[in-house]
Amino acid sequence: MLESHVYELMIPRSRTSPAYLLAILFVLALGAAPRATATPGAHIVSLAPGAGRSVEVTVYSPAMRRDIPLQVLRPADTDTPAPTLYLLNGAGGGEDAATWSAQTDVSEFFAREHVNVVIPREGAFSYYTDWQQVDAGLAAKLGNNGRNMWATFLTEELPPVLDSAFGTTGRNAIAGISMAATSVLDLTIRAPHLYSAAAAYSGCAMTSDLLGQAFVTLVVSLGGGDAENMWGPTGGPGWREHDPYLQAHRLPDIPMYIASGTGLAGRYDSADDPRLDGNQRMLLNQLLIGGGIEAAADYCTRALQRRTQELGRTDIVYDLRPSGTHSWGYWQDDLHRSWPLLAGALTS
């Protein structure tokens, strides 16, 4: 789904100590405590210190035949193995200013948590899924080769590479917003044994009905892509296969946190909000476009709630807020509220 506004925040980069640089090189050299065998050819291309305790990592994906940049937030104690949270951005895929790092307190929040947080910096308009065809439109828009095999990369290629490089516990969780919230549910179905928990914020699980098809097609087209290159002919078996509502019986038996708002104005929908900084045009965009998008997400989320209740699921927490648009203030709150569920599953 779409993020209702985009604007840039500059994050200061702190000086990095020689000890920290040495530690990074040491981890790369030893590949401490590997947990799995990586897909042949998947490997770290580069690793460099970022702001604070973050590390900028580039991993080669054989499936996509290109290098994929990632940000990894490391725990304070890097001597003790930590679990991993894969945190996905929305429609912009981390390739614009609408990112977890730029729009939320993610770095500060996880600074006190013993976890590795992995945030891909690519994947715009891709639904983080495996595409059936190379897409020339996305290639031209995003400056890549148009090969999108994100599910293979995220579930098969990347985890063992990072487990080996950072000496993780091998336990994983996944969370995402908007477009990627849909992806999160689909990825747990594809890799039911990979994740210990999942969280989806303001996504739509219904991708194969007429409304879902129209919205997915719109999101992909904003990147210049053709959604039929993704899942085949619109309304066909590929679309039904990747519809978490239709495939709800295949959702793994893991704790999940699924949240949405009604689209009505809430606490972050005023010009006084720091992310809006008095910008009336941005506020109007958030209220009208962001309100409409969130109302649609809420419709999907309530339908999924009914479906999973019919299936007897009791380990899915639905946070159906009485207000709130499709915007970052609410997603930061969602992340904070869902973290105890995710953390409990990662450490149990």
TrEMBL record:
Assigned keywords, A-Z: Hydrolase
Coiled coil: none
Keyword Hydrolase: yes
Gene Ontology MF term list: hydrolase activity
Keyword Plastid included in the entry's annotation: no
Annotated InterPro entries: AB_hydrolase_fold, Esterase-like, Mycobacterial_A85_antigen
Top-rank taxon: Bacteria
Name assigned to this protein: Alpha/beta hydrolase family protein
Taxonomic source organism: Nocardia fusca
Origin organism lineage: Bacteria, Bacillati, Actinomycetota, Actinomycetes, Mycobacteriales
